[in-house]
Design a protein that fits this description.
Elements (H helix, E strand, L loop, with lengths): L5 H16 L52 H8 L2 E5 L2 E2 L3 E3 L6 E2 L1 H14 L5 E5 L5 H6 L5 E2 L7 H4 L3 E2 L4 E3 L1 E6 L14 E5 L3 H8 L5 E5 L2 H9 L5 E5 H8 L5 E4 L6 E3 L2 E2 L4 H16 L2 H10 L12
Parallel strand pairs: 1-5, 1-6, 10-11, 10-12
Antiparallel strand pairs: 2-3, 3-4, 7-15, 8-14, 9-12, 9-13
Helix pairs in contact: 1-7, 3-9
The protein binds glutamic acid.
Glutamic acid binds next to helix 6 and strand 12.
Length: 314
């Protein structure tokens, strides 16, 4: 039985902000590294991989120097615009959340964007952040509201029909967050109970695939899911273990349980109209893998040292 937590419920939004403050770039709050993905996933979570979603466009030639982009390329246009426009969220602690002390959105995903801005301009600050709703990510890339989306976003075949993806820069997996003392140890034990995820996320679709039939509840983002959880509107939140780690850091009465149900390879979404920009981003990612920048950013936000996922090309 879950007890009610009226005080936490009232403080949920303030808690989000306060916890975000604890992850100021000077003192990131480390979280345990996610478990490695299981070798085989249950058949109900199997994904269409016929498009080979983890393979991206191969870079060609050397990375151009900042400010010296090939004429007529998308990169040259972005340099003329004076800033790189990044779509991300502001409530994903450790990956992209607003630091109330500085007003800046910061995290692992934002630092990926800053590296791309640095490669374009020679200045990581030339990055404009737009908060994009989870369900609008591919639409915003397609209609040019943003130059790219870096937002714990899984590269899958459905999304590849709408946008191109970079090579994979992080691999997460879906798990579930429940109340401590709930006695629940897996998503499958939540049959008939409400489980929250963001609208437009792969997580929401997966909840509906669980054989015991938990009831999927959608919210605009995972911050809203945490509020719903703390108000006992939902029994659990299920999404990538990366995002759950950030939510758990904000709620001492929550715990993450169960094995990884899925493999969520994160990649950067870019318009299909600009394949040269995807190749450029892949070059920047390649350099970050090789010169230790990726490892440094991982250490800074996730508190552990590990190897980046290898690039795969089509
Ligand atoms: N990685 C999953 C997805 O892209 C869930 C988290 C999210 O929506 O950002 O759908």
């Amino acid at each position: 039985m879950r007890r009610t937590r009226p005080v936490l419920a009232l403080l949920a939004v303030a808690g989000l902000l306060a916890a975000a403050g604890c992850t100021a770039s000077d003192s990131p709050r480390p979280v345990p590294p996610p478990e490695s993905a299981p070798v085989s996933l249950a058949p109900e979570f199997a994904r269409d991989t016929t498009c080979e979603p983890e393979r991206s466009l191969r870079p060609s030639g050397a990375l151009p120097a900042p400010g010296r982009m090939p004429a007529d390329s998308r990169m040259a246009e972005i340099v003329r615009n004076g800033r790189l426009v990044l779509g991300t969220s502001q409530d994903t602690l450790l990956f992209s959340s607003r630091n109330p002390r500085t007003g800046q959105v910061e995290g692992f995903d934002v630092d990926m964007g800053r590296q791309i801005a640095a490669a374009l301009f020679g200045d990581p600050k030339k990055l404009q952040i737009k908060v994009v709703p989870h369900a609008e990510r591919t639409a915003w890339v397609r209609n040019g509201k943003v130059d790219l989306v870096i937002n714990t976003m899984t590269a899958n075949c459905e999304r590849w029909q709408e946008v191109d993806f970079s090579t994979v820069y992080y691999v997460a997996g879906q798990r579930v967050l429940v109340a401590e003392g709930s006695g629940i140890d897996s998503l499958d034990e939540l049959g008939g109970q409400k489980v929250c995820a963001a609208v437009g996320s792969t997580s929401l679709e997966n909840i509906a695939k669980v054989p015991s039939k938990p009831i999927p509840v959608s919210k605009p983002g995972f911050g809203e899911c945490l509020v719903a959880f703390q108000q006992n509107e939902v029994a659990a939140i299920s999404t990538d273990d990366t995002i759950l780690a950030g939510l758990k850091a904000q709620d001492p009465f929550a715990k993450i349980v169960g094995a990884r149900l899925t493999k969520e390879p994160y990649a950067i979404a870019i318009s299909k109209e600009h394949p040269e920009f995807t190749r450029f981003v892949n070059q920047v990612l390649e350099r970050m893998r090789q010169d230790g920048t990726w490892a440094r950013i991982h250490q800074k936000w996730l508190g552990t040292t590990t190897q980046p996922p290898a690039a795969e090309y089509r």
